[in-house]
Amino acid sequence: MTTAYKLKPLTPHFGAIVEGISLQNRIRKETLKRLEQDLWNHRLLYFTDQGKLSAETQLQISRHFGEIHSTFYKHPKSPHPDIFRVSNDEKEGCTRVGRSGWHIDGTFCEKPFRVQTMHFWSTNKKGSTYFCPLNEVINALTEDERKVWDKIYFVGDSSVHPLIYPHPETHKDTLCFHLGDAFFRCFAEAVDPIEMRAQPLSQKDSNAIRSRLVSLLEDSKRNVQINWKQGDFALIDNLAVGHYASPGTQADPKEGLRVLHRTTVAGHSRPLDLKLEALKTFKKRPAQTEKNKPASTAADSKA
Fold first, then answer.
1. pLDDT at 299
2. Exposed, middle or buried: residue 51 (CB in 10 Å: 0-12, 13-18, 19+)?
3. Cα-Cα-Cα-Cα dihedral of 137, 143, 144, 150, to 10°?
4. Are the beta carbons of 265 and 67 closer than 8 angstroms?
5. Which partner from 178, 189, 270, 293 sits 20 to 30 angstroms from 92, CA to CA?
6. What is the helix, strand, coil percentage profile of the chain, to 5?
7. Which residues are CB-neighbours of 210 under 8 A, at least 6 positions away?
8. Distance of alpha carbon 40 from alpha carbon 222, whole angstroms
């Protein structure tokens, strides 16, 4: 029932390990509000030793962030229709999930998923997941790359999103993409936001941007590999962190059964709208000239 818990850095760049809280107990609204703020600040909150949480407990936490977007195949062993059950054994859950490439979830929607939770009922030795903070990826671009990427759009199977846009909560630049072959069509420019038409880049240019993005995401100085243990629970800002399931997540179940319960929370904002609003705001800013530069002060002259 307490709101007290402690945070310990997961990496120097992003993420926090949450200590001193049991999710098995009913969580107060005050605690959920604090967790929400910590999530926007750290982008990934990692809880250990939480046992096997019930479907309703996981959904209670998820619903704090919004409506559950349940779009996936309902595996017979899932404890609830809104719990996506993932495994390395098709008898236990949906297989090969998250293996096609680096991504955020829900890019097929106009409003990609806002938040997701991952809870592990069972783990195997090699079934890790990689996570990478997206603002840091953008900051690693050269000046010339940034100029190009700011004009590029990700085109998926049924969606078009700006590659770079401001996060709806923190307003920091982030990325929208899915690099798996089944989800990725191309990168494009000159997008018509009304007709949702775009001019695709050449295959060569699309592949070059795709390869560059993968290289930035896979930089071990930037990303983190989480080796899950039974009872682990993660609260993830889906719009701020890309992820990728390692090959070991589909290892032979005879070597260890992996069972993940996942929820996804519906998005509140279209990246395209956020991008267009940011461009309007930028255009309204007065150019800094000699006439509108801030007046210097005595303190400035002494500095």
1. 39
2. middle
3. 60
4. yes
5. 178
6. 25, 25, 50
7. 179, 184, 187
8. 18
